[in-house]
Design a protein that fits this description.
With 251 residues, the protein is of the alpha/beta class. It has one domain: Rossmann fold, CATH 3.40.50. The chain has eight helices and six strands; from the N terminus they run ααβααβααβαββαβ. The strands form two sheets. It has a four-stranded parallel β-sheet with strand order 1-6-5-2. The chain has a two-stranded antiparallel sheet with strand order 3-4.
Length: 251
């Protein structure tokens, strides 16, 4: 899979000379296994092209996760929980391969992986995203202390790439994370919801936004995007959608 394979819309630009020079000075690593890639060799190595498992077949009509049967419309989670977003979409199943990839992306400084994630989103979900008619992309924000420690916001990197590919406006600073919440990965559903209560604030008026897409790396319980969706809808946004790179199994 390389940059030219990706189906895009709204006028994607070609790679700039600056990007080519960067690839020469700082060779890319495979976004799946992290092995060094040959110059011009794409974003993943040949051996890893089929390792990420795309979300396919019957999907939950709310959170977008794969279902075990085409007789179901919603997953067990979405049958029991009321979500505030309208619908969510994911590209890959959060299996061992993608777990390692996302870990390096978030905690080992592999910011270049955002190109693979963004292009994969457009390749697999481009038509769905285009059909939503979204006014803006909103990445899930990090608290300023965590972002300072990490050096970047992984969701923002994915959203920037997605904005470049689709032409949808990026609203990178619209939602702020004002509470230094505990990491979500070791919390159950109820703990996650309590942890995120009043964690976000809007930085300005958003009366002109009708439909938005929240962008993140992983969908697990939806607690984070639910809290953001509720905030946005209370401020007047009519429809809130969610796009993530991976989706995990319900807790």
């Amino acid at each position: 899979m390389n940059r030219k394979d990706t189906r895009v819309f709204a006028g994607r630009s070609k790679d700039s000379l600056f990007e080519v020079v960067l690839d020469i000075l700082y060779p890319r690593h495979c976004a799946v296994c992290d092995e060094l890639l040959p110059f011009g060799g794409g974003l993943v190595c040949i051996g890893c092209e089929r390792k990420p498992l795309p979300v396919s077949g019957p999907r939950c009509m709310k959170c977008g996760r794969m279902l075990g049967s085409d007789r179901e419309e919603y997953c067990s989670d979405c049958r029991e929980v009321i979500h505030f977003y309208d619908r969510a979409f994911s590209v890959f199943v959060y299996n061992d391969v993608m777990q390692q990839s996302i870990y390096r992306f978030k905690y080992r400084g592999k910011q270049e992986y955002a190109d693979f994630y963004g292009e994969s989103i457009v390749r697999y979900l481009g038509r769905e995203i285009e059909s939503l008619g979204a006014d803006a992309l909103i990445p899930v924000p990090l608290h300023k202390d965590r972002q300072k420690k990490r050096g970047y916001n992984q969701a923002s990197l994915i959203a920037k790439k997605l904005s470049k590919l689709t032409g949808i406006r990026l609203e990178d600073d619209l939602v702020r994370r004002v509470a230094a919440t505990r990491p979500q990965k070791n919390l159950n559903r109820e703990e996650r919801r309590k942890n995120l209560k009043r964690a976000f604030l809007l930085s300005r008026n958003i009366v002109k936004l009708t439909r938005v897409i929240i962008v993140d790396d992983i969908y697990t319980t939806g607690s984070t995007v639910d809290e953001m969706s509720l905030l946005l809808k209370e401020a007047g946004v009519r429809e809130v959608y969610v796009v993530t790179v991976c989706s995990g199994s319900p807790l």
